[in-house]
DNA sequence: ATTGATATGTTATAACATAACAACCCTATG
DNA sequence: CATAGGGTTGTTATGTTATAACATATCAAT
């Protein structure tokens, strides 16, 4: 459980208006759910809000603990189902490396995301990446459906401190 | 010293002399362990042999079951420690997407691997990839230490089965 | 023979994830 | 109205992946 309320948390590792960042994402989710005729229920909305609080990835059980504290559900399937819905709708991404979830930086476009994960502070920034395996895939005839791209390292802030 | 008789097709999706593939990998591991003065113990060697049997990724508990059947250890830490050693030495890669492990296609060079995972047959091919986040990282000042690149899709063989 | 380094064995538990079924809440239609 | 069906949530139980912590073994060097 990570209580983190700092606005120094960057989007692309840059300071930004996080409140705007949150409300924009929520509004987009509202619109998209309406357009797609899927239900943006209280549990689902709350899970997205929780993930939007910071740019760190949260584990399903972290999310569940928050839901539980608010009386919205206490058993793993509740959290996993909401997360699965949000991932399906493209509002949340799963970070394989961390077995954790993070709110999408831009749910309005369908995209194949890439991430930079700071191993010191846990911040995860979403980025755009080239298809790194296009060549190999083309040569071998492999048909790519989805590519996980997750870089791990140190964000600008954390490089300043010595971290062995 | 590059004894690469490599076709354009990544190992794993192409027919090849797998016996040679295995013994080459084992011989390389032997040499590197000797050179590095680390112990290539029976458990470690056997785990590598097990992973070398196919180009599919095995979970730690799959490996453990094999070890157990051969009287080489029955508790999770035995498998996880051997796997950690092999990963450290670069003889084995972890596939994050699958929470599983696969023998390295070419342990003789230090490399940052990328993978193509067939969702139908489970074959995993190792490939070379460009640094897909170099631009984003440079712009944001993120210092990349390691990048996970894992494409999922259909290998050439498994595409043929589809008849729509 | 003792020490120290390295590896393995074992217990216990943490952390992540899902199958299966019951209950609830709409709303569309008879 | 009622009631049937779809979608969502609640709950139980369990499956899967991973590690902390401590005990034992092995062996080389003092």
How would you explain this protein's 3D organization?
The structure is a homodimer of 164-residue chains. With 164 residues, chain A is α+β, with helices and mostly antiparallel strands. The first copy, chain A, has one domain: Winged helix-like DNA-binding domain superfamily/Winged helix DNA-binding domain (Arc Repressor Mutant, subunit A), CATH 1.10.10. Helix content of chain A is 40%, strand content 18%. Chain A contains six helices and five strands, in the order ααααββββαβα. In chain A, the strands form two sheets. Chain A has a three-stranded mixed beta sheet with strand order 4-3-5. In chain A, strands 1-2 form a two-stranded antiparallel sheet. In chain A, strand 3 (114-118) and strand 4 (124-127) form a beta hairpin. In chain A, helix 1 (18-36) runs antiparallel to helix 2 (42-52). The radius of gyration of chain A is 17 Å and the shape is globular. The first copy, chain A, starts with 17 loop residues before the first helix and ends in a 5-residue tail after the last helix. In chain A, 37% of the residues are buried. The model of chain A is unreliable at 1-10 (pLDDT under 50). Chain A binds chain B through residues 12-14, 96-97, 114, 116, 118-119, 125, 127-133, 136-137, 139-156, 159, and chain B through 8-10, 13-14, 96-97, 114, 116, 118-119, 125, 127-133, 136-137, 139-156, 159. Strand 5 of chain A pairs antiparallel with strand 5 (143-154) of chain B. Chain A binds a DNA duplex (30 and 30 nucleotides) through residues 39, 41, 43-44, 59-61, 73-78, 80-81, 99.
